[in-house]
Design a protein that fits this description.
This protein is an alpha+beta fold and 247 residues long. The chain folds into two domains: 118 residues; 96 residues, no CATH class. The chain contains eight helices and ten strands. The chain has a four-stranded antiparallel sheet with strand order 1-8-3-4, with no helix packed on it. A hairpin with a 4-residue loop joins strand 6 and strand 7.
Length: 247
């Protein structure tokens, strides 16, 4: 399993660079940018077996205390996609909320007025990249459990490297080790674009993209899309709509 020290060395080797010509700070920034991009690809490719960077020591679940009559709740910027939003009822049972949006219901009445009386939340609205609103807003502990009463399951970005971890050199990326060296190629590209232009096209082919028949990116997407070998693909029938309705 390649470590960050080996990944960095490979990136420099691909450029014929050293620690003076390709500084540690610049390489770290580019490795982390590549790392987050790869994790973004994986998250969009995985199936019901959800990907999470193996370097995290906790589960991708955010918990907050509910505040009486407060609708909006903000989480940190590590999550990329919300999977489920849950609140605890007064008995401590988790209730899964339904997503809602003003566009879905139409009309001119704002959601805040439509659900103006506090109670047990039933819906959540994603109002920004890191904020959701609950409808109705939670009441003062009559219908809900306020303490740690809100849980959000989410997909999060990579557990990126720190400069201290680069110094230690032992941490590895939290995805399949088969593909770790894609970070080296991705970090080598911007350096080569400035100083080794003749290598850019070759490295771009190795990294690949959706519209190319080869490439590590395609292999990553395929590997994560097909991880669930224990789940069988089942062919089912679906209704066909014609001019007279459904049949």
């Amino acid at each position: 399993m390649p470590t960050i020290a080996e990944i960095n060395q490979e990136a420099r080797d691909l450029c014929d660079a050293d620690t003076s010509s390709y500084s540690a700070a610049t390489l770290l920034r580019r490795i982390n940018a590549a790392y987050e991009k790869v994790v973004g690809w994986i998250i969009n490719a995985d199936g019901t077996w959800q990907f999470d960077d193996s370097n995290y020591s906790n589960l991708p679940v955010g918990t907050q205390t509910l505040i009486a009559s407060q609708s909006a709740y903000t989480f940190n910027d590590k999550f990329l996609q919300i999977l489920r939003v849950k609140v605890k009822d007064v008995n401590g049972n988790l209730i899964i909320l339904k997503p809602i949006d003003q566009v879905d219901i139409g009309g001119t009445e704002p959601l805040s007025e439509m659900f103006g009386t506090a109670g047990l939340p039933v819906y959540y609205d994603k109002v920004s990249e890191d904020t959701i609103k609950l409808y109705p807003a939670p009441d003062a502990g009559i219908s809900v459990t306020l303490a740690s009463g809100l849980e959000v399951d989410f997909k999060r970005t990579a557990s990126v490297f720190t400069s201290a971890q680069v110094t230690t050199g032992t941490k590895s990326p939290g995805f399949m080790s088969t593909f770790h060296y894609i970070l080296s190629y991705m970090a080598a590209l911007p350096y080569c674009a400035s100083y080794k232009k003749d290598r850019v096209a070759t490295y771009e082919r190795i990294i690949g993209d959706f519209d190319k028949p080869m490439g590590m990116k395609k292999d990553i997407l395929k590997a994560y899309a097909l991880r669930e070998k224990d789940v069988k693909n089942i062919m089912t029938t679906a209704p066909i709509r014609n001019g007279r309705g459904w049949r």
